[in-house]
Amino acid sequence: MSIPVSNYQLVQLINGSWSVRSLAEGETFHPVVGPVAEAQSLYVEQLDLVRRVTAAGGREFVLWDVGLGAAANTLTVLRALQAIPDHRVRIISFDHTPTPLEFALGNAEPLGYFGGYEGPVRQLLDHGRVEFAHGGGWVDWEFLGGDFPTRLASPSAAALTCPDAILFDAYSPARNPVMWTLPLFRDLRARVDPQRPCAMSTYSRATLLRVTLLLAGWWVGAGSATGEKEETTLAASSLDLVGRPLDATWLGRALRSRSAEPMVDPVYRQAPLSEETRALLMQHPQFR
Ligand SMILES: C[S@@+](CC[C@H](N)C(=O)[O-])C[C@H]1O[C@@H](n2cnc3c(N)ncnc32)[C@H](O)[C@@H]1O
User: Fold this and answer.
1) Is the pLDDT assigned to residue 109 strictly greater than 90?
2) Which of 20, 102, 176, 188, when mutated, tests ligand 1's pocket best, judged by the most ligand atoms within 8 Å of its CB?
3) Which of 20, 163, 201, 229 is exposed most, by the fewest CB atoms within 10 A?
4) Could you state, in order of their start, the residue ranges of all structural domains in the chain?
5) pLDDT tens, 127-137?
6) The domain at 2-287 falls in which architecture?
7) Residue 19: which residues within 8 A CB-CB, separation 6 or more?
């Protein structure tokens, strides 16, 4: 069953939960297990957020939400953190459009994950920023519009508060190549504070993505299963935050893969590793 509205559509998934579909991109957000289940396993659990925010004590913990979309990831994360005493969480959400969030808020009831956060979301949409008391803690949530790769490459990116964790949820590389290039992940790595380790989770397990992350200076590991995906990807600026680092077996497969060469330009294409990339990959400290 589906109800078409504007550029977005509410779709009911096979497990009965509802999600948002972009008609322009032809992609459904969190398509298999649904918004809450995917956000819980891919971001809350995989990024170990409850433990890390608790360990931060009263220090501000900074989340970058890349691809705010309909805010299922952020709201699921917030709900998981609510009971932590004295938490202080800053969220910076990036998206080139607030339209999916506006659409989702208008369909909050079937989507089912807004409960209690409708007010803050309304304020975020109206003012671009909202601060609110949250259980025993405090949340400061900001929305930054515009093209994310352009923002990250501009000198003003240096003024952004560095992230402790990144929820990376763009459309697929084939549909949205501008969000999966080597320059973008290099720029993202450059925004990490050397004094504060950062982990980043994303749903893709593609060899091309993992090679891109390694070349961009991240440590990279296999992430847990979610929905139809038997593996996802967890990257970090510190090896300690990667539970299952990619190993020599993965490297061997990457060297033989037909789709492993990072995209430098935002044009999707599949290619085996170039000689130069092979050499860089084999020198990565993760494989030494
Ligand atoms: C899969 S959806 C995100 C779903 C969302 N995380 C959620 O929990 O509902 C991908 C989002 O990335 C955004 N996006 C795609 N390309 C972008 C770009 N170049 N700059 C900024 N945002 C972009 C889209 O507008 C879309 O909202």
Assistant:
1) yes
2) 176
3) 229
4) 2-287
5) 999 999 999 89
6) 3-Layer(aba) Sandwich (3.40)
7) 10, 11, 13, 28, 29, 30, 31, 34, 35, 70, 72, 111
